[in-house]
Fold this sequence. Notes:
It is a single chain. The chain has helices spanning 4-21, 27-42, 46-49, 56-67, 75-82, 85-97, 125-133, 143-148, 205-214, 220-230, 236-245, 249-261, 266-275, and strands at 72-74, 101-105, 108-111, 138-140, 159-163, 168-172, 175-181, 190-195, 198-203, 283-284, 295-297, 302-304. The chain is α+β, with helices and mostly antiparallel strands. The chain folds into three domains: 4-119; 134-203, no CATH class; 208-304, no CATH class. A hairpin with a 4-residue loop joins strand 11 and strand 12. Helix 1 (4-21) crosses helix 4, helix 2 crosses helix 4 (56-67) and helix 12 runs antiparallel to helix 13. The longest helix has 18 residues, at 4-21. The radius of gyration is 27 Å and the shape is elongated.
Amino acid sequence: xxxxxxxxxTTSFFLYTHLTEQGYYxxxxxxxxxxxxKEIKDNKTMKRNKYSELSKDAVYLLSRSExxxxxxxTTEYAVKVLGNYLKATRLLDNLAKRNRLIQLKRGRYLVxxxxxxxxxxxxxxxxxxxxxxxxxxxxxxxSSMYNYWGFTEQIPQKVTVLNTEKNRMRKIGKISFRAMKIxxxxxxxxxxxxxxxxxxxxxxxxxxxxxxxxxxxxxxxxVQEVINEQIKKxxxxxxxxxxxxxxxxxxxxxxxxxxxxxxxxLEELSRLKSSIGSKNSYAPFNPFIKSRKGTVNQDWKVIxxx
Length: 306
């Protein structure tokens, strides 16, 4: 049976051979060999996590992806590195089973860092959501942002990702994600924040408040309380612009009355009022109640149904 040192030297030889066959003679070769050998020498859990038992192809793929700062490996990338589709797909499946890769979706994997102890690692859930979406236009919103911006202390059970292409539920690692397809007309008020060296898209505070009126959690009375609390903490002019741009007129009507109740002047709300139009079409103020019975507010064309 080979000693740990002999295993390291043998694997290093295979890695070097593989690298030179691919044309990576200098920096990449030296980096990969030194990094791999250091991991084996320094990691006391190496025998337990069985990294030393990975094939030379696996070692090469992981080392090269780390050298190239590839946080995500696709099937196409693996085929390019290994030169064989069947070999690449089998290896990706094997690495996912060993918790060396985390599958984001079919053919797309998140790379677990070499230094992760026993492969027990998961990046921030917003980063995972961003990598899951890839090139799709998206923003993290709804309950995820209600908590983030302090509208509620309720901790969301899943990360909601609004996007222009797909409706889907997925569990990645131990975290649940929900992709919700929305109209491109709602893709505005988005800002980028940096988490763990990665930029992710979220709805800004004013845009999140628009969503909170459109898709509230808790009681309807709680929505008014949040607006009363946040009105001095937000850019009211921006919030009004966002409301005018929102393609659901009922939301503008409800928001107009709520803002008026929160003390915003009619002068500031004049453009919002104009955006609801002159048609005698009335929306129930409380969307949680199906009944349309109640006093009518003529200014904002809402039925005070409870």
